[in-house]
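Internal tracking record. Fields below are filled automatically when a chain is submitted to the structure queue. Please do not edit lines marked as system-generated. If the sequence contains nonstandard residues, flag them in the REMARKS field before resubmitting.
Queue: standard
Priority: normal
Entity type: single polypeptide chain
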Amino acid sequence: DPAAPSFQGTGGSPKFGYGDYTYPERVYGCMVHPPLTRIPGTATDVRLYAKQPVNMPDFTIEQVAEAFDTKHFTDCEDVGFSGGCPSMDFPTAFPEKKIVPHADNTLAVDPSKATQILGAPLLAYTGPTSAHFVVAENGTSTTSQVVVSNAGTGIGPFRVRATQPWIVVRHPGDSLSRTLDGGVAVGDEMDVVTQAPRVDRPRLAQKGYDSVLSISVAASLMPAGNSTGTLIIEPLLTPGASFVMTVTAFRPEIISIPTATPTLATPTTTPPTPPTSTPVPTPTPDPYPFKAVAPQLGKDD
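SYSTEM-GENERATED OUTPUT FOLLOWS
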C-alpha cells in the first residue's frame, strides 16, 4: 500500500521500495496495510483483505529476548539447521500481558474464482522409480530424469523433497548453485509464452508445460561408499498420488569437487538467440555504496 507510513516520501512518491525491506518486514507490512487492487472498469481501489492485528516480538519478556540470543542461531547454523532451530522458539501467547492468539478475519475466497484461476490439475509422472548414481573421481555423477506433466487443467504446483541432503534436483542445464524444491506443470488448454513479442520478434507460445527434472547427487554432501535415500515429488493442489524414487549412490573415497556445471540431460528446446540491441549506458556510481536504509529517516547520513 503506497499510503502506508513506511512508504511515505516527498511529493507523494514512495520513499522506500519493495527491496528495501526484509522478508519478515514485508509480511508484517502486508498484514497491517493490505495491498490495494483496482476494481475492473472503475477508478475505485479496494483492499485485498482485512487488516490483521499484529504483535511484534516484545523483548521486555524474558522468554522472547532469550530466544533471540545470537548464540542459538550460531548453534543451529553449525549443524545446518537440522530439525529447525527449537532453541529460538518462544511462546506466542502471554495471557497475563493480554497477548493471545486471534483468528484470521479475512473472508474465504469464492471457490469458483480459485477454480477459474487454478483449474483442475492432475499430475502425471514419467521416470524410473529407482535410480543408482555413481560419483566419478572428478566429483561429477550420473543423472536420472523425471518429467512431471499435467493431465488435467490449469496450473499444477508440486513440492520436491528428499530424505538425504545429497539428493539434488535441477532443471537440465542449471548451474550447480541452483536446486529445486518445487515447480509447476501447466495443462494443455493454456498457452505458455516462451518468447514475449517485441518490435523485432513475434510472440511464441506452446500448449501447456511439462516440468523436466534432472536428478543427481551432490558428492560434497555424501559420505564415501554406498548411500541410500528417497526422492518424493508430491502434488500440492490435488489428492493425486506422489512420485517416489528410491535412490542409491556410490562415492569413492577420494574425489575432486566440481566447480562447473555437471553434464546433465540436454534441454528439450533450444532458447532463441537474443536480438542485437543498443548497449545500455553504464549507470552513475552510487556515492553511498554502503548505505543502510532505515525507514522514517529523512536522508542518507
